[in-house]
């Protein structure tokens, strides 16, 4: 079913590298305010599609539009300025810098200060710095409960806190769409619960649309409005979490068989720790 006025639309997108199709003929839409998860086995093309939407890869075929504007050939920094903020599967923070400085870098695309003002720290530069620091400290740092580490170097933080700082940097971009690439990968149960809560709160309180790649099926089924399933670079299923769980093609992709009951049990087992913790 077509979405009226989608924020993002991928139309027949194909991405190739070294003669291999990483993504093939993918079409899907992301509506405003929705939470959509991209799932699939390892090597299914999820991160490749993410990189294409955010501008790090360019499709060999097809088009991508953002709020009706064709962004297929617009580079990643301009897409970030337009409202596409993202985190990465592998943490991409500056480890020698503090938490606060890493987060502030997320706002760089929106700053209007010219080089002369910045070098001399003149009026506009001072005002922008004060406004940026106030927004980051009063909104983002407090929201993600990382005030106690704001001046700590990223290299001194646990893995879970580093993932939270990366999300903070993405939020500093003032995104309309928050793109999260495996936000809870490698986290323990408590860290996963915290991150899930933050993601839901960002959507509810800030009105941010969420597009997420994640292997934690319990989290995907608990949080998502809509799920798109990829396998070998192609969309094999889409729908609500319940519809996707019941699709035999999804079972075959994950398990190599048509045993839907086995897949459902696997998904229930992934969700069980969250239910017990609640």
Compact description:
With 278 residues, the chain is α/β, with parallel strands linked by helices.
Characteristic terms for this protein:
4-stranded antiparallel beta sheet, Rossmann fold, globular, 278 residues, 2 domains, 11 helices, 6-stranded mixed beta sheet
Structure notes:
The protein is of the alpha/beta class. The chain has two domains: 1-83 and 176-278, Rossmann fold (3-Layer(aba) Sandwich), CATH 3.40.50; 93-174, no CATH class. The protein is 43% helix and 21% strand. It has eleven helices and ten strands. The chain has helices spanning 46-54, 76-82, 99-105, 115-120, 123-143, 159-172, 189-206, 217-223, 241-245, 248-255, 260-277, and strands spanning 8-17, 20-30, 35-39, 61-66, 69-70, 84-86, 177-181, 209-213, 226-231, 234-239. The strands form two sheets. A six-stranded mixed β-sheet has the order 6-7-8-3-9-10, with helices on both faces. Strands 2-1-4-5 form a four-stranded antiparallel β-sheet, covered by helices on one side. A hairpin with a 2-residue loop joins strand 4 and strand 5 (69-70). Helix 3 (99-105) runs parallel beside helix 6 and helix 8 crosses helix 11. The longest helix has 21 residues, at 123-143. It is globular, with a radius of gyration of 19 Å. The two termini are 35 Å apart. The relative contact order is 0.15. Residues 113-122 have low confidence and may be disordered.
Strand order of the largest sheet: 6-7-8-3-9-10
Helix segment tally: 11
* Class from secondary-structure proportions: alpha/beta
Largest sheet: 6 strands, mixed
The quaternary structure here is single chain
> Number of folding domains?
2
Q: How many E strands?
A: 10
User: SSE string, helix = H, strand = E?
Assistant: EEEHEEHEHHHHEHEHEEHHH
- pLDDT averaged residue by residue: 84
Overall 3D form: globular
CATH architecture of the largest domain: 3-Layer(aba) Sandwich
Report Rg.
Answer: 19 Å
User: What is the H level of CATH, i.e. the homologous superfamily of the largest domain?
Assistant: P-loop containing nucleotide triphosphate hydrolases
